[in-house]
Amino acid sequence: CGLSPQAIVGFAVVISYASIGFVVLWRTHIIQKFLEPIAMCLYIAFVLAVLLYIVAKDHWTQMTEQFQQFFEMLGSIEDIFAGDSAFESASCSSPKKPNKVARTKQ
User: Fold this and answer.
1) Residue 85 class from Cβ within 10 Å (0-12 exposed, 13-18 middle, 19+ buried)?
2) Residues 32, 26: contact at Cβ < 8 Å?
3) Which residues of the chain have a pLDDT value below 50?
4) Which of 14, 20, 27, 57 has its CA at 20 to 30 Å from residue 74's CA atom?
């Protein structure tokens, strides 16, 4: 993980002391009165974040669908001006007939 062995030992010592302290505070019922409002705030923040995600995802989906339709329309307009439309090839152009020249034997 890129840490030296001394740093890993230091982290292990701090995590051990923090865990022991948490257990002592939990068993003496000191930490519950602080964790209750924090947990409630985190829960409300989580619910609001999920709702915001749902709204943002819905708007993003609608926006990408509209952009897709716009670019498809833009492509068809581009095809018309480029002379590649099916309408132009079906109604405006006429097939060229080859000239039949009668050849005579000399």
Assistant:
1) middle
2) yes
3) none
4) 57
